Amino acid sequence: MSEQATPPQLFQQLKTLQHQISTIIRGKPTQIRDCVACLIAGGHLLIEDLPGVGKTTLAHTLSVSMGLRFSRVQFTSDLMPSDLLGVSVYERERSGFAFHPGPVFAQVLLADEINRAGPKTQSALLEAMEENQVSVDGQTHALPQPFFVIATQNPSEQLGTYPLPESQLDRFLMCISLGYPDEKAERELLMGQDSREAIRALGAVMQPGELLAAQAAVREIHAAPALLDYLQALLAATRSGQWFVEGLSPRAGLGVLRASRARALLDERDYVSPDDVQAILPQTIAHRLRPKAGSGRGAREQVRAMIESIPIP
C-alpha cells in the first residue's frame, strides 16, 4: 500500500479522477460525482438505464482510473452461481479438491445487465457484497480489497428481465441513471475516438492503497448530533406509512451517512452538512423504497417531496 496522502493531495487526486472520467463520459458531472462518492464510501453501485447510454463504459472507466483489477460478467438467464463464484474441482495428482476462483475474485466486478439472470444467481452475490467473502462447498474464501460490485440494470419493462429482490437492492449503496447525453456531449461523442480505445489509453489516477486511504478519510468526516437528528427524522419519515409502503432498514441509514460523508470529502470539508444529506438521499434510498399506492409519483420524486416536508434542525 502506498503512503497515505495528505488532505490536499487527496483532494487533488479526487478532482483529477473525476476529470479523467469526464473525458470518457461526457456531460454527466453529477453522475460521475455520485459514482466516486459511492466508491470512496465503500459502497456498491447500481446503474439503471436503457442499453447503449454508457453504463458499461462508465464502470470500466472507473476501475481503470482507480487502478483496480477489473472483471466483467455478462448476466444471462442461464448463468449459474458457480460461473460467478468459482468451483471446486477434483485433481487426481493432489488426490483432493482444489478451488478454482470465479470472476468475482476481482477488485471491481462489473455485473452487466444483472437483472437478466435468475434469482438464484443474483442471490449468489449477497454474501460477497455484504461480507467481502464467498462460501463454496463449505469453505470460505476472502475477496480482494478493495472490492466493489458495479452492476448495470435494464429497465424492468424490457423482455427477459427479472426484478432484483429487496435484499439485493438493499446492498447497493447508490442507484444512478445516466440518461441520454445533451446535444453538445453527443456531438463530442460522435466526433471523438472510440470509447474502448480511449479507455485503453487511460492511466490510473489512484492506486488501490490510495483508494483505501480515501475510504479511511471518509470515516473521519464529522457528523454533528444535530445532523444525526436530521438523518433520523428522514429515516423515521420513510417508516411512517405516509410516503412509502415500507421504510428504510438500519443498513440503509448507515449507507446514507457514509455517502453524505463521502460527498463532504469531495467538497473538501471535514464535516457533513444537511445539504450533503439532501443531495445524496434520492440516489441512496429511492431504489430501496416503494411509494404508497395513489401517490402519483415515482420513488425519487416521492423522496424529494419527503425531504421538503422535513425541517432542517
Task: Report on the architecture of this protein.
- The chain has 313 residues and is α/β, with parallel strands linked by helices.
- The chain folds into two domains: 7-81 and 105-134 and 144-183, P-loop containing nucleotide triphosphate hydrolases (Rossmann fold), CATH 3.40.50.300; 221-309, Magnesium chelatase subunit I, C-Terminal domain (Helicase, Ruva Protein, domain 3), CATH 1.10.8.80.
- Helix content is 45%, strand content 15%.
- The protein has 14 helices and nine strands.
- The protein has helices at 7-22, 29-40, 55-65, 81-85, 119-123, 126-131, 166-169, 183-191, 195-200, 208-219, 225-238, 250-266, 274-285, 299-309; strands spanning 44-48, 70-74, 86-91, 96-101, 108-112, 133-136, 139-142, 148-153, 172-176.
- A five-stranded parallel β-sheet has the order 2-5-8-1-9.
- Strand 6 (133-136) and strand 7 form a beta hairpin.
- Helix 2 (29-40) crosses helix 12, helix 12 crosses helix 13 (274-285) and helix 13 (274-285) packs antiparallel against helix 14 (299-309).
- The longest helix has 17 residues, at 250-266.
- The chain is globular.
